Amino acid sequence: MLRRVRRGVRRLYERVLEREVDGVPTHIAVIQDGNRRYARGKGKGTAAGHRAGARTTENVLSWCSDLGIDELTLYAFSTENLERPPEERAELFDLIEEKLYEFADDEEIHDQEVRIRAIGQLDLLPQRVIEAVDYAEKRTAGYEGQYLNVALAYGGRAELLDAAREVCAEVEAGEQSPDDIDVETVENRVTQRPARAVDLIIRTGGDERTSNFLPWHANGNEAAVFFCAPYWPEFSRIDFLRAIRTYQSRQQSWRRTRIDRSLALLQAVGADRAVVSRLTEKVGEIPQTALDDIEDVEAEPFSAD
C-alpha cells in the first residue's frame, strides 16, 4: 500500500515538473557516475552496474527526444578509465561495443534520425571498439534530427593540448600567423564533435566536479551544472527534469542580471521611459516596479564628455 502511494506521489511530482518546463537546453552533457558503487550496493559485479547504467542511457536519450533537446553527450569512458584493472576494462569495452551496434541498428534511432558520433582519443581503444564506432557513425551519418555524442578515451585537457599542438605546427610551417590566432582558431579544432556549446552538465553519483569534461564547450559557455546523489543506474526522469529546472533558473538569473545592469546604466545617464521600453524589447520583460523606479528620472542628452 505504502509503495503504491509513493509511486503515485512521484508520478504527480513528475507531472508538476513537466508543466514547469519552459525552454530547454540545446545541448546536455552527462557524467554517468556511480555504476560500480550501485553494483556493489546490490552485491553484484561491476559489469551488472555498467549494464544497468546502459539502460539509463537509453532512457535519457528518449527523454531528450520528448523534450526537443538537440544534442546529448555522454562521458562513457575517460582516459583515466584506462588505468582500471584489465578485466574491468574488458567488460566496459564489451558493453560499449555491444551498445554501439545496438544503437546503430535500433529502429527508434532511425525513426528519430539520431546521428551517433564518438569523441576522444579513439586510437587508444581496442580495434573491435573502433570498428563498432565506425559502424554506428556510418549507419547514422545522414541524420540531423538529434545528435548523440559518445565520449570514449576522452580527456578535456588532452583535447585542448592537441588543438594547441596543431596550431603551433601550422605556425611553424608558415600556414598560420601568431597574430591571427583567436578564439575561432581554437574553436575550429575542438568543435568538430560536438558542434554546439554545452548548456547543461549533469553529474550523478554525489561528486561535485566536472572531471575534465568538455572544458572548451562548457566553461566557455558558462554552462549550468546539476549535481545529484543517485547513482547513474538510479537516475530517474524526475532527476532529469530537476536538472532542466536548474538550467532554466540559471537562464532566468542571467536575464535578471542583464536587466539590472542595463537599468543601472540607464539611471546613471538619466534615460527616459522610452529608452527603457526599447531596452525591454532586447533583453526581455522588465517588471513594472523597475520601470516605475526610473520613471521620474530627469532625461538628459547623451554626450561624449
From TrEMBL:
Cofactor note: Binds 2 magnesium ions per subunit.
Alphabetized PROSITE patterns for the sequence: UPP_SYNTHASE
Keyword check for Protein transport: no
One GO-annotated biological process of the protein: polyprenol biosynthetic process
Molecular function terms, GO-annotated: ditrans,polycis-polyprenyl diphosphate synthase [(2E,6E)-farnesyl diphosphate specific] activity; magnesium ion binding
UniProt-listed Enzyme Commission number(s): 2.5.1.89
Keywords of this entry: Magnesium, Metal-binding, Transferase
Cofactor entry: Mg(2+)
Protein residues bound to substrate: G34, N35, R36, R37, H50, S78, T79, E80, R84, R203, R209, T210, S211
Catalysed reactions, semicolon-separated: geranylgeranyl diphosphate + 7 isopentenyl diphosphate = tri-trans,hepta-cis-undecaprenyl diphosphate + 7 diphosphate
Positions of the catalytic residues: D33, N81 (proton acceptor)
Residues the record lists as binding Mg(2+): D33, E222
General function of this protein: Catalyzes the sequential condensation of isopentenyl diphosphate (IPP) with geranylgeranyl diphosphate (GGPP) to yield (2Z,6Z,10Z,14Z,18Z,22Z,26Z,30E,34E,38E)-undecaprenyl diphosphate (tritrans,heptacis-UPP). It is probably the precursor of glycosyl carrier lipids.
NCBIfam families assigned: uppS (TIGR00055)
Entries under PANTHER family matching the protein: DEHYDRODOLICHYL DIPHOSPHATE SYNTHASE COMPLEX SUBUNIT DHDDS, DEHYDRODOLICHYL DIPHOSPHATE SYNTHASE FAMILY MEMBER
Record note on quaternary structure: Homodimer.
Family under the similarity heading: Belongs to the UPP synthase family.
Protein name: Tritrans,polycis-undecaprenyl-diphosphate synthase (geranylgeranyl-diphosphate specific)
Highest classification ranks of the organism: Archaea, Methanobacteriati, Methanobacteriota, Stenosarchaea group, Halobacteria
Gene encoding the protein: uppS
